Amino acid sequence: MTTTTHHPGNPVKFSERIEPFLAIIGPMVMILAILLFMGVAEPARYFRLSNLNLILLDAALYMPMAMAMTFVITQRGIDLSIGSVAALTSILMAFLIKQFGFSAPVAITIALVLGALCGLINGLVITKFKVPDLIGTLAMDLVYRGLALVIAKGLVLARFPEILTDIGRGQIPGFIPVPVVIGLLTMALGYWLLKRTFFGRYTVAIGSNPEAAEMTGIAVDRYKIYAYVLMGAAAALAGVMLTGKLNAIQATSAPYFNLHVIAAVVVGGTSLFGGRASMLGSLAGVLLLSMMINALVTLRIEFFWQSVASGVVIVSSVALYTWLQKKDRDGAKGLIAGLTTPESLKLLRLSGGLIAALALLLLIGSLLAGNPVASG
Predict the structure, then answer these.
(1) CB 3.0-4.6 Å disulfide test: which of 135, 224, 236, 278 passes with 269?
(2) What is the C-alpha separation between 349 and 130, in angstroms, rounded?
(3) Are 285 and 279 in contact (CB under 8 A)?
(4) Neighbours of 375 (CB within 10 A)
(5) What are the pLDDT digits (tens) for 220-268?
């Protein structure tokens, strides 16, 4: 990646000033677009205090996992097992409370430790057995989900102590929901780890160039394991929050945690190719996806079209940040110059076509949803 040296007498261009902040600017612009659109389409329903509370509660559930996934992805890793880890640890916690009479704090602590243990197993599979992250965590996802199904035996466990429901949906009087406080605290912890600790600095170094990081004396495998342990514990915490939110849990819970969290982190500017992380961007990505899904619900768009919209957002974001990274490698002269290259113009036209196609699909979906065909 080339760098440009600016002399005191040379003014810095606006495009060059904003480039370091694109990770946070991107999702914030999309959030603003959603707010403007919903302000016209459904202002009364979308901007109700109760609906804003729902958005925050949904986003809070993903904040701990987005924090940990930021470290995993920055190290060029991926974790597809987090939904199963959340389900397995929550099922175990529920059985400890309901069947064995454990107190809720003890059961929650055991669940978090089990989540960290699952993360440790993932890290060892990847670093010691040299299984690629994608295959290793996908295989362990099957293992953890299978264990959850075996333990639960089809049961739905419900009605937990008040401390657990407070974690999932409690409200601090005159303040904000308890899970939002928990989520923001985990994001603050992640920001501190990323910016102020060796773990954060080594994470970026490993993602930028693992071989060079190892040659400088960084224990690459050890720090990868640390990231996966953190990921497992965060997934377990999310499982605890989900259990408290629903006041119930079953083995098939949290099936799409992995895609939602990865999407939020990538939308927030953390590079899938490693070496580039933004904790604030991950927070903005979580809020963006929660606001988008809530907006689609408010507009009465069916769940399946929500999945379509989420997929398009993921593809568009990955394409954008891949282009940005390629521009850095190729040494394009600033953002505006990069946007006017033939390759970039083709990408912009393709993006416009995808957005138009999505808008058409959503229109068709809303028309079909409003006029169901009667079955005979």
Answers:
(1) 278
(2) 40
(3) no
(4) 4
(5) 999 999 999 999 999 999 999 999 999 999 999 998 899 899 989 988 8
